[in-house]
Amino acid sequence: MDSKSYYDVTLTISQDLLVYPGDPKVKIEQTLSISKGDTSNVSLISFGSHTGTHIDAPKHFYDKGKTVDEIDMNRLIGLVKVFEIMDKTIIDVEDVKNLNIKRGDRILFKTQNSKYLKEKEFNSEFVYLSSKAAKYIVNKGVITIGVDYFSIDNFKSEEFPVHNFLLGNDILIIEGLQLSEVKVGEYFMVALPLKIEGGDGSPTRVILTSKTYLIDAL
After folding, report:
1. If both were cysteines, with which of 64, 116, 185, 216 could 123 make a disulfide (CB 3.0 to 4.6 Å apart)?
2. What global pTM score does this model have?
3. How many C-alpha atoms does 176 have within 13 Å on its Cβ side?
4. Cβ neighbours of residue 187 under 8 Å, at least 6 residues apart?
5. Please, what are the domains in the chain?
């Protein structure tokens, strides 16, 4: 397979992985070890439900919202559009209203955030989506939206208006996407969260496949 036929846009879960301030840090402990005489290697892994590349389910901000095990997986598997918005500190309605966004779309925003994901310290000045842009996107009928940092809201916001508005309208959010190597265009996306009963979110493996490769494979 050609190396550019697919892109793994998932952050690697490790004890060095950045997390949103206040979230649990990743802990990995080897409980069984072949080198110590055990018959197999087994690890105990501890992390928050919104670690690394992850899905926000409506339950994240609404007690009665859908949980990870209840969300429609069709929203996470299918064609997706990648848009690039650089040299901006905020994605506003003026930045999205001329994009080719249609009802039923899944959309991902590539920004300068992708380079922030490679830094060793959390960057609180990450690019975020404005409330007006969120309302425009909801009105266009988008079903899933993804961004390339750990929150779609302004870090300084205490009320998380974009999360509340999107999840309140049953729009799924994918955060922590590493889109540095991905070009603008349309792809086939597979985003698989862990099936956690009652889960408000889940780390997720996200793969983008080129439409050309998909057609050839079929």
Report:
1. 116
2. 0.94
3. 25
4. 7, 79, 80, 82, 208, 209, 210, 211
5. 6-12+49-217 (3.50.30.50)
